[in-house]
Amino acid sequence: MKRVVFNQKGGVGKTSITCNLAAIGAAMGLRTLVVDLDVQGNTTHYLVGEIDAEAYPAEAQGVAAMFKQTVRSRKMASNPDAFVWETPYENLYLMPSSPALTTMEKELESRYKIYKLRDALEKLDEEYDRIYIDTPPNFNFYSKSALIAADTVVIPFDCDSFARQSLYSLMDNIVELQEDHNPDLEVEGIIINQFNSQARLPGELVAELEEEGMPVFNTYLNTSVKMKESHREHRPLIDLAPSHKLTGQYLELHEELEATVARIAA
Question: What's the number of domains the chain is made of?
Answer without folding.
Answer: 1
